[in-house]
Amino acid sequence: MPDNRPVSKRALFFSRSFFPLFAVQFLGAFNDNLFKNAMVMLIAFQLSQTDEQTGLYITLAAGIFILPFFLFSTLAGQIADHYPKSVLIRKIKLAEILIMFTGAIGLLSMQLEWLYASLFLMGVQSAFFGPIKYSVLPEVLADSQLLLGNAWFSGSTFIAILLGTLVGGLTVTLENGPQWVSAGVILVALAGYLLSLKVPYTVFEDSAVQIDRNILRSTWLVVRSSRGHHQAFFAVLAISWFWFIGAILLSQIPAFVKYTLQANEDVVVAFLTLFSIGIALGAGLAGRLFGQGVKLLYHPILLLLMSLLLVLSVWVADSIGSSLRIVDLSVAELMGLAEFLGQFPENLSLLFLFSLAVVGGAYIVPLYTQLQITTPQNQRARMVAVNNILNAFLMVLSSLLVMLGYLFELKLSTMLLILALFNLVVAIWFYLKRPEHE
Questions:
Q1: 180: pLDDT confidence band, cut at 50, 70 and 90?
Q2: Smaller CB count within 10 Å for the chain: N or C?
């Protein structure tokens, strides 16, 4: 049981019950993004030649990583509710070491087949860790500490994305870069396993939970039963929409930078870095502004702001100065970071996407907290699994829709404007539904 006695934020963060868990999930998120961003950079700047090919390869990679969340989240949720979560964490982190050896082979061989296979296995490992990550928090934190704990988890996840982006994106393009990244993912996996041994034993388990190995049947039954928890399921739908938007933006930033802004990999890293910092900053602001309560009053406004900022980012990048665009990038030198930052008003697209990320971070944290506190303890991991399933479904759907857009030769900027329009529709839905789920 979590200790409900008052405790300072610093003492809570460095407590034996919270910090090892925080460190394990942080290193896992960092390692995923170290590998993924190294792979994306290889695809964008070495393993593909055209706009369409780059977009298709990167979108396929995003879909392959997310697919296991859709396939295995229900099974993972049942296992997490059945067994002590601390034991499962150690087994999952041990499996990560073996998976990263596979990823190293893919990086060293530069074979897309190996890279995609490794990415799928990484997705499987993350799918089994996901239900544990958020469902274990209420077992180690008091209800009054959950919003802050979620803010640390959500914010740190995107700081991990930031660091993975920086290390993976910058290192893999160096001489012997794939070798360095290969060693890095293995070492981080080893560190994650050693830290998992420090995670305190969690006592909650429910042997009555049946583990159904029929993936399709169990997925359908768990999703259907989760709808009975109306407030939690509303939070799941709202969270899933955020990841629909985030999946498109994160996966398409390399293509957006190279073909719309005509800038190089350093600018890609800058965009991904500031996007990650923005999410972390927004998550931290949510933890401070909302205190111990969960308030969804401003979420429709946050969605409206996200649409506005996305439209502005596309407008300054694509519409203004389009006469200066170079048609044949194969014979042109892409802009470096210093040149891009001096290219007004196109450089404002970086500021607008950063602001969008801040708004997104503030949007997501209260929703995760609502999911946790409105779900019974013995069903919490399965509700998180439902969240991961719907997140994965919308993220895979986003990949398919973007691939379809490329096949129909839609410009990426056009697809992003369509996304902003759909987000407005979701803002109206949220406004109409929020009062009954406040």
A1: very high
A2: N
